[in-house]
Design goal:
mainly alpha; single chain; disordered C terminus; 14 strands; three-stranded parallel beta sheet; about 10% strand; elongated; three-stranded antiparallel beta sheet
Length: about 525
């Protein structure tokens, strides 16, 4: 049975690259009828951030990428799913590797290691603890057996390192995305498996967990590709069946130069995390797609397309569509450029196609965040606002920024347009217009529009004289839904009130300057 896992570290907010990794694991597991589990890898307690674990779980739930087993999603037969709760497990396997001759104790102090690095740097060389250098270091391979035994008995500071084979050989394995992969032994160094405090490193802990949890496929980011040969060697040293690997391409900056980071997101104004996050220690905040106004299903849709395509022209796909179409053969090896414009376009498509009642439910929290207008209590009114703006909004936040005037009075007018188009000599006609367009038995959009056109035809004014002034009077701005639709939603009384207040204001905007008196020239 196919079993995959998403195993992030709780070191802060979950990057969208992690979301995509979780998504691909989910799609593959669902397609194969297998299991998808969440495991948190928190062995590096120096980088642990309180609240990050809860954030990971909340982010996956918001995105709809739901593990069927694991931390926050129900225990299967392989609990616990937090590595810090599994510490008693790992030393046994490190000892087994030592017994088999695949690992060894290293007693080098931090000062000794620093001295070796400095010595290499002086020669403009890189220091690596490997098959060549370990012969000159203080470890159980170079020290007499009785001295090693004494050091261990005295609990002298030490780590356990994996022993990379010597010679000109290599390690080969297959990757579902990259095909056959090989690394020469000379490229690899003797990584630490158990640290000085007895805690396992990622290289040991995750591998033991994957084995015990019967993980069949390891789907993870490209940044782990260089560590894969070590992991393969450990599997083989333990006589365990190794999982099938798939190393996903990086998500790159929009210009393609380097991996997309939080700093890039801040610099470019691009969210790189699914949910808002505030660091509990530093207070630093991370903007999320949720607060930016993205729909979670749209986020998952465009995340899926960063490095993968279904093989046809489809760009809008449900999770079920993705499950059916997913394959590793269609994932690119090269990094995928982050295209924020494309992300927003996809979000807009979801807004356009979403049923009005559901969209209103999604929009309502963004409106409530910005206003406590009693109009929000009128669901029919709010739904109509959403309908009028649905084709105009790309993000959920824009239903507020583009529709503020529906819930609050106009505080500022587009005075540049008013100054250009308003003529004080026509103010009396506009006063007549107010009564003419509101004195209707049935105050509908169609009737309002008909009355405006009738007035224009009889008043000598032009469409370009009247319609911009009506729009600005009702909304304060020059763009938006149909003026007639806006007026009909406001109703007779509110429309009359807004037109009257605005036209008085317009007269002040273009009030002629006071003529210069001759005597003033002498001042």
């Amino acid at each position: 049975m196919t079993r995959v896992r998403f195993a992030p570290s709780p070191t802060g907010a979950l990057h969208i690259g992690g979301v995509r990794t979780a998504l691909y694991n989910y799609l593959f597991a669902k397609q194969q009828g297998g299991d998808f589990l969440l495991r948190v890898e928190d062995t590096d307690q120096t980088r642990f951030v309180p609240g990050a674990e809860e954030y990971i779980i909340a982010a996956l739930k918001w995105c709809g990428v739901l593990p069927n087993e694991g931390l926050g999603f129900g225990d299967g037969t392989h609990a616990p799913y937090r590595q810090s709760d599994r510490m008693a497990i790992y030393k046994k396997y490190a000892d087994e590797l030592i017994a088999k001759g695949w690992a060894y104790y290293a007693f080098d102090t931090p000062d000794e290691l620093t001295a070796k690095r400095s010595e290499k740097e002086a020669k403009k060389e890189m220091f690596a603890y490997n098959a060549v250098t370990r012969t000159a270091m203080r470890n159980s391979l170079t020290l007499p057996a009785d001295e090693v035994a004494q050091l261990l008995a005295e609990n002298a500071p030490h780590v356990v390192r994996f022993k990379i084979p010597e010679g000109d050989g290599d390690v080969r394995f297959s990757d579902l995305i990259r095909g056959s992969v090989s690394y020469a032994f000379a490229q690899l160094d003797d990584k630490v498996l158990l640290k000085g405090d007895g805690l396992p490193t990622y290289h040991l802990a995750h591998l033991v967990d994957d084995y015990l949890m019967q993980i069949t496929h390891v789907i993870r980011g490209e940044e782990w590709l260089n560590s894969a040969p070590l992991h393969v060697l450990i599997y083989r040293a333990m006589d365990w069946k190794e999982p099938i690997f798939a190393h996903l391409p990086l998500i790159m900056r929009p210009d393609g130069n380097g991996k997309l980071s939080k700093r890039d997101g801040d610099r470019l104004g691009i969210p790189v995390f699914p949910l808002h996050f505030e660091h509990p220690v530093t207070g630093e905040t991370a903007t999320g797609y949720d607060e930016t106004g993205f729909l979670p299903e749209a986020v998952i849709n465009f995340m899926a397309l960063f490095g993968w395509a279904p093989g046809d022209d489809r760009e809008i796909m449900s999770l079920d569509d993705m499950v059916a179409a997913f394959s590793f053969e269609k994932i690119n090896k090269a990094g995928a450029k982050f295209d924020y414009a494309k992300a927003k376009w996809i979000n807009q498509q979801y807004i356009l196609k979403m049923p009005l009642d559901e969209l209103t439910t999604r929009v309502l929290p963004f409106l409530q965040k910005n206003t406590n207008s009693p109009k929000l209590n009128d669901l029919k009114y709010t739904t109509e606002v959403v309908r009028l703006l649905q084709e105009r909004c790309v993000l959920l936040t824009e239903f507020w920024t583009q529709g503020t005037y529906f819930f609050e009075g106009v505080k500022t007018y587009d005075e540049a347009t008013v100054a250009k188009k308003w003529k004080t000599e026509n103010s009396a006609k506009f006063d007549e217009l107010i009564d003419f367009v509101t004195d209707i038995d049935s105050f509908t959009a169609a009737n309002f529009e008909a009355r405006v056109k009738s007035f224009i035809a009889s008043s000598g004014l032009k469409m370009g004289d009247v319609m911009p002034m009506l729009r600005i009077a009702l909304t304060g701005r020059m763009s938006g839904p149909s003026v007639a639709d806006v007026a009909a939603l406001f109703g007779r009384v509110e429309t009359q009130k807004r037109l009257s207040a605005a036209f008085k204001r317009f007269n002040k905007v273009v009030e002629p300057e006071k003529p210069i008196e001759i005597n003033d020239l002498d001042k």
